[in-house]
């Protein structure tokens, strides 16, 4: 056979093809360039992230500044919202349940906002200039003076003073040891003091904290419906204001599947209906507002019902307000 001639007509192997017909070492080597590029990107991204993380000293200085000037009636916020656990670590003692579980900024005269990475939160969104702004390392602290609160009566915190009934029969106020599991994946805890409307264990009315559809904590009154016949909470001889503002939602795990029926909440002044909320899965922490037609004192009644009450873990927060202020609502 002549030199250079191929046996059986097989083509001559090239540098890019091995003897077994597979790719050569050179062609197999190209993915390593991609791996190297990914590693370089990850290292650069890590360095950028680390450079933007506040040091512990930054948190300590920012927290000390807020503590020194904090007054009753202030709310403390953080932006972005995912940093809230770090805020609680440093200033959690200044975040009682009504503050941490707020529905809006109306109850507060001043708002402190800790900002990371240039983010702006609820108070900044109001459009009012900050009365105080100071940078502590990678944390910016701002204070917004919102003015006197428009909230005159917080019904959520006064549920102990109410009367609760089911089908015309009074629900008994009782003290007990909570056995309801709370935390990730569990419903909110039953408070040790509450109105019990049973016999079903979830048919109680009381002040608690619930995680809404956005996984935000809400300070609210649990009032699980029993069916078409409403559970009724009545506040007697309440000092009235200009309007009632009513928020409500369901425990996130029972609302996000969007498989169940609506819940109806109706608000009455004496025998006159002021507002009606129909809450459907997906509505989240929903708000309705209604004018109060007269001043003085009166009985306010909140009725909650559902055609199908299964997993209708309804919780509401209500305040009487007025007059409105320029910002903060």
Q: Name the shape in a single word.
A: globular
* CATH architecture group name of the largest domain: Sandwich
Helix content: 10-25%
Distance between the termini: 96 Å
The CATH class of the largest domain turns out to be Mainly Beta
**How would a textbook summarize the main sheet?**
8 strands, antiparallel
Mean pLDDT: 88
Task: Give me the count of strands.
Answer: 18
Please write the string of helix (H) and strand (E) elements. Answer: HHHEHHEHEEEEEEEEEEEHEEEEE
CATH level-four homologous superfamily name of the largest domain: NPCBM/NEW2 domain
Structural class, please? alpha+beta
Q: Tell me the domain tally.
A: 2
**Oligomer type:** single chain
Count of alpha and pi helical runs: 7
* CATH fold node name of the largest domain: Jelly Rolls
Which residues form runs of ≥5 with pLDDT under 50?
1-18
Compute the gyration radius: what is it? 30 Å
What share of residues are in beta strands?
25-35%
Describe the structure.
This protein is of the alpha+beta class and 329 residues long. The protein has two domains: 56-145, no CATH class; 151-321, NPCBM/NEW2 domain (Jelly Rolls, Sandwich). It has seven helices and 18 strands. The strands form three sheets. Strands 5, 8, 9, 10, 11, 13, 16 and 18 form an eight-stranded antiparallel β-sheet that branches. A six-stranded antiparallel β-sheet has the order 7-6-12-17-14-15, with no helix packed on it. A four-stranded mixed β-sheet has the order 1-2-4-3. Strand 14 and strand 15 form a beta hairpin. The longest helix is centred in the N-terminal third of the chain and has 22 residues, at 31-52. The radius of gyration is 30 Å and the shape is globular. Residues 1-18 have low confidence and may be disordered.
């Amino acid at each position: 056979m002549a030199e250079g001639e191929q046996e059986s007509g097989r083509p001559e192997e090239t540098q890019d093809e091995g003897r077994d017909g597979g790719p050569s070492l050179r062609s197999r080597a190209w993915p390593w360039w991609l791996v190297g590029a990914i590693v370089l990107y990850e290292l650069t991204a890590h360095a950028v992230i680390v450079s933007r993380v506040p040091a512990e000293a930054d948190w300590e200085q920012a927290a000390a500044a807020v503590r020194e000037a904090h007054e009753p009636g202030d709310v403390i916020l953080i932006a972005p919202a995912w940093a809230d656990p770090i805020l609680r670590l440093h200033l959690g003692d200044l975040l009682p349940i009504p503050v941490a579980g707020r529905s809006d900024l109306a109850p507060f005269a001043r708002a402190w906002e800790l900002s990371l990475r240039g983010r702006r939160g609820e108070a900044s969104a109001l459009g009012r200039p900050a009365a105080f702004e100071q940078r502590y390392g990678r944390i910016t602290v701002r204070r917004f003076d919102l003015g006197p609160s428009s909230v005159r009566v917080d019904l959520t915190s006064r549920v102990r003073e109410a009367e609760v009934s089911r089908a015309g029969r009074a629900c008994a106020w009782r003290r007990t040891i909570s056995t309801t599991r709370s935390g990730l994946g569990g419903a909110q805890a039953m408070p040790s003091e509450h109105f019990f409307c049973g016999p079903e264990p979830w048919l109680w009315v009381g002040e608690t904290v619930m995680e809404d559809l956005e996984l935000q904590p809400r300070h609210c009154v649990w009032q699980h419906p029993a069916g078409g016949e409403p559970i009724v909470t009545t506040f007697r001889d309440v000092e009235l204001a200009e309007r009632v503002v009513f928020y409500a939602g369901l425990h996130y795990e029972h609302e996000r599947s969007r498989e169940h029926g609506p819940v109806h909440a109706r608000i009455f002044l004496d025998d006159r209906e002021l507002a009606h909320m129909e809450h459907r899965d997906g509505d989240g922490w929903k708000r309705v507002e209604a004018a109060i037609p007269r001043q003085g004192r009166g009985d306010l009644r909140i009725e909650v019902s559902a055609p199908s009450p299964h997993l209708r873990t309804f919780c509401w927060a209500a305040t009487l307000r007025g007059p409105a202020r320029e910002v903060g609502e």
